[in-house]
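For reproducibility, we list the full input for the S-adenosylmethionine complex.
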Amino acid sequence: MPPEQGFVPSLHYRPLTPLYDVFIRLGLKEKAFRGKLIKHAGIVPDHLVLDVGCGTATLTLMVKKAQPEAVVTGFDYDLDALAFARRKITRARLDIALVRGTALELPFADMSFERVLSSLMFHHLTTENKQRAFREIFRILKPGGEFYLADFGPPNSRLMRFLTFVVGRFEKLSDNTGGRLPVMMAEAGFTDVAHLDDYNTVFGTVAFYKGKRRAR
Ligand SMILES: C[S@@+](CC[C@H](N)C(=O)[O-])C[C@H]1O[C@@H](n2cnc3c(N)ncnc32)[C@H](O)[C@@H]1O
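The corresponding predicted structure, in tokenized form, follows.
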């Protein structure tokens, strides 16, 4: 794919994608971590919800199970990850749409969603692509809509600093660890930007952020 699409597979190398779910299950207390993000998001019946960079759709499925009356869509560039996602969704017999494309140019109309969530995708993007993706997410949110982001944040202990240093050998973490994600969110137009929580993992500190599109 053209490099400007800014896509990196979930574990950096395509042959590792089948191992992603096991890797994350071992590395994060996944249910608690994702459950916390979903709780923050306050999704109610009839909300249109998008999971950007859904990968194998673990979060997407949890959103739908937590609020079956919401209309949930998973979005990712990686066809391999989306194939895993489709199998999981079929097994769970849930009605979830999957859409393929790049977060740098979301194929959705302006003001389409009440909630957008994204977990562990932004650290795959360059600074410029993070800014583009934030602008795109802002564009597709309805007025009053909210964006909930979970991704690496500033490490909150010496151990977390060490773990982040190790992960930082492989990923584009400097914007994350430098605390610049909320600044970029505000620059993209989000209001009420807040750092809600930290979640310490074996990969380092994951921060939860919120941003809102002002109601008209
Ligand atoms: C580490 S995985 C996280 C998957 C899932 N959100 C989770 O929490 O397990 C990152 C995902 O972001 C996707 N991704 C990376 N860059 C992307 C882009 N520019 N557009 C769409 N998806 C992208 C990758 O394909 C991958 O599935």
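Residues 79-92 form the longest helix (14 residues). Helices lie at 20-27, 30-41, 58-66, 79-92, 127-140, 158-167, 174-177, 181-187. Both points were considered when choosing residues for closer inspection.
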